[in-house]
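Z., the sequence and structure:
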Amino acid sequence: MSQPDLNLLATLDVLLTEGSVARAARRLRLSPSAMSRALSRLRETTGDPLLVRAGRGLVPTPRALELGARVGQVLEDARAMLRPVEKLDLARLVRTFTLRTSDGFVETFGPALIARVAGQAPGVRLRFVPKPDKESTGLRDASVDMETGVLGPDIGPEVRAQALFRDRFVGVVRQGHELSRDEIMAERYAGGRHVHVSRRGRGAGPVDEALQALGLKRNIVTIVGGFATALALARASELVATVPERHTTATRSGMHSFALPFAAAEITVSLLWHPRLDADPAHRWLRGCVRDACTR
């Protein structure tokens, strides 16, 4: 199957804008006969007459109107793609970036990130939105500029990723809780009343797999969708929350945290973005700001 001539897109745009073969020919500096041949090729390629005679003029078909609403943006995107990249002027940059993050990220890393961005590019605004799932739809449809999270099967194969930091799980209880005193063994940890975190409502996770290898099982009495909720419940009750250490530094303030008394798998938190933004200078700069904020 032969590939369509993409040069016809520019011809189609001018023809639909002018609504006249003669005017389109003058605008493109072609002869009327050459423009007529181009229109014939467009009709053959699209399988539609596109412009039909109405009195002394031409009117677009429904298919032409549909194409006209899209072809201009396609051409503009192509020109932007081929345009040389201008040097980034952070002092004059005006842009809003949307970041999709999990519980605790904004509280822990947001202050340093916001301060860094404001100091270099005062016209840039950051919009943080919650992350209820791990799907990468927002990156694909451009509603999200970048997000943070642990790589999983729901992440699209085309998505770019860069590791930000490794994190381990810790146990967290309110001050005065019985697990805030004395040495904690695996049996003692498992015997507590636990709040488990699962966005999908699952009743077990990696910590439970590690306990199972020891012949132990946690007493999970409630399941919540986020680490912030788990910590809020543990702060106000006898529940034990198990959360990523670095990711929840700010939200664990004033609580008692302890290392898990058994080996549990660590997680790697990554920065994710769509490849269409890979070479964008402003996006590349912001990715560096996020990395710096997370490594402080």
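DSSP finds ten helices and twelve strands in the chain. The radius of gyration is 29 Å.

Let me know what you think.
H.
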